[in-house]
Amino acid sequence: MVTRRKLFGLGAAGVAAAGAGAITARSLVREPPVAHATAAEPFPFYGEHQAGIVTPAQDRLHFVAFDVTTGSRAELVELLQEWTAAAARLTQGEQAGSFGAVGGSPEAAPDDTGEALGLPASGLTLTVGFGPSLFDGRFGLAARRPPALADLPAFPGEKLIPEISGGDLCVQACAHDPQVAVHAIRNLARIGFGRVSVRWSQLGFGRTSSTSRAQVTPRNLMGFKDGTSNMKLEDADLLREQLWADAADGAGWMAGGSYLVTRKIRMTVETWDRTSLREQEEIFGRDKGEGAPVGKRHEFDPVDLAAMKPDAHVRLAHPSNHGDARLLRRGYNYVDGSDGLGRLDAGLFFIAYQRDPRKQFVPIQASLARTDPLNEYIRHISSGLFACPPGVRDAGDYWGRTLFG
Amino acid sequence: MSAIIRLTAGALALAALTACAAEPPAPGGSAAARQPGRIAVAAGDTECKVAVSEVAAGTSTFAITNGGSKVTEFYVYAPGDRVMAEVENIVPGLTRELIAELPAGTYETACKPGMVGKGIRNPLKVTGEHKALNADAKLAEATRSYQRYVKSQSDTLLVKTQEFVDAVKAGDLKRAKELYPVSRTYWERIEPVAEIFGDLDPAIDAREADLAEGEEWTGFHKIEKDLWIHKDVSQDGPVADKLIADVRTIVAKANATELTPLNLANGAKELLDEVATGKITGEEDIWSHTDLWDFDANLEGSKAAVQALRPVLEERAPELVGTLDEKFAAAEAELNKHQRGDGWRLHDELSEAELKSLSDVINALGEPISRIAPIVAK
């Protein structure tokens, strides 16, 4: 395993150096080059917006939600500063602490856990978010809770498990290499011990959306292309209108940030797999092979909603049904092994960024939850809502400065 | 039982450790400054009268008379509850002596009727000439201080294990069940020291799941299963005899081994690792569910090792001392929520959320404790 990873890392780096701009072995075959997305060349950490939102979706995810266990606002701020410093290093392919895995005292526990030694940055992005519960009385933030961070309503049919839902803070780690994403979360969790407690975490593989036109459209575990008509990083005007929060939206500190909704959606793939192709395609409103909308031949042909069944998934979710509301989706497939009944414990870890969930995720999901025939095969089992602050400007800045500073 | 503490051969240099009472005066304590005579301590169930509130730096002898109805203990604490000297198991009516070497400073004395809680405290001021110790002397004093602790704990371990063994051999299931977690307390406080002696630790403390096919199972947990599951210890006479014999051997060895400051630092961490891997999960006392007794003892043992190093840490890493105090207090507070009478709630009565809270405070404490060893090694 180790040898293989090493070889792979070197291989990818070698290809990148040769100018092919490769992301992963898979992408060598499937995807054209994307700026700054090579294994060796990291995404910038500092900027107006946090990386990991419009960043071309990497292939792997480790998402974690924390409860804050300290009652001290100063300690929380200190933690965010320490996290920011570590994230600035980790995303550039460096180690979590200044000594690293093997550079410190032999009597000391290393300040990096070491499993990413020798691996390139692998396109790692780390994105932080603040949950509604952070704005209770504990840290004097109640008055600063953004109106858009309103608790999600209960949706019909959902079966949320509280233990794997919510959280005061979240960190999304995306990378081309799962080892790199897990390494980052593990080290941030370690830095946080005593101030935060891991509430739940989720591994994901196989991005289920494209966030850039340079990427091909991937498939979810139902075998369908997902994210064809997603908002893309190239749609600057649309992003300004639909993705990035503005100072005028009611929370000045969120300007340049975005609101994140996560849903863990369990699929009963065994019954789905026994469903006829015709029914599968009718449920989605696209064909399974090309991803073309009903009645069309190619994936990117314009959709003809009228040609679809009234309750087709694509039709229900279409912006035209929701005042042109869109989401930037960047979800991941997940498989948590098998459950006790021998069924694949699998599905979609849905991730969507937007400017205001009240106007975007909520109406779209309300309509899907009511009438989507896909609901026969899926169940929402976890839910998360987070305000992701604007980006970290420079080394003197930190995650959440506009909120706490 | 956990991974065996890793020691270099050098750290295991065996040297006879003189008993507390026969220890030579500390480098700082001059003969002239020594308090002549004995300091009387009248211990009761609700009081702890110490004859003086101020003594001269150097060696002091306390004579504790237990006039109450409960078994008691007497401690001299330096700031942060660092045990300077301690005598346990003073039964009603008995007087026991305690010799303490105390440099100038502020201390607290404590009687602990029933051997639980923080005890009845009194301030004790120590004044007078006290030659400053250099850093190495501080480390030497740290290990001496911790070895006094090991000595006191292992003395009581012998007494309590004997009582447990007697109850098992007498077939007194009820008494044996009561004594099981109590006798283990003294074991769990000093387990990293016991673990130095490879074969004895498993003989005393192996769990059924630790055994390889065909290996003989002896020690506490074998009897635990017979007490709680089979409800029959009639065949356990030889196991009980072997247990007390093994404990006797390990106590003798533990007290004859010269520890290093790194042993203390690592031992403190090991004990918390034990909590995190064995007690939080309920794997340690899988039949009796008395894991919180062990949890508490591990935490106390860890604290004793850290506090022995406190003077060194205060000099080299004062910020860390503050963090450790805070995190120990948080861990104790979380654990104390589960106190019941003189003992603890059973592991299988705790909810997942309660166990997670306990796990969080142990993680919070474990990280700063892992920073002690390199500071000591500097």
TrEMBL record, chain B:
A GO CC annotation given for this chain: periplasmic space
Ribonucleoprotein among keywords: no
Keyword field: Signal
Domain of life from the UniProt record: Bacteria
Signal peptide segment: 1-21
Residue ranges of every copy of the EfeO-type cupredoxin-like domain listed in the record: 12-115
Imelysin-like domain mapped to chain residues: 142-371
InterPro entries: EfeM/EfeO_iron_uptake (IPR050894), EfeO_Cupredoxin (IPR028096), Imelysin-like (IPR018976), Imelysin-like_EfeO/Algp7 (IPR034981), Imelysin_sf (IPR038352), Iron_uptake_EfeM/EfeO (IPR053377)
Subcellular location: Periplasm
Signal as UniProt keyword: yes
Membership in a protein family: Belongs to the EfeM/EfeO family.
Protein name listed in UniProt: Ferrous iron transport periplasmic protein EfeO, contains peptidase-M75 domain and (Frequently) cupredoxin-like domain
Provenance organism: Nonomuraea gerenzanensis
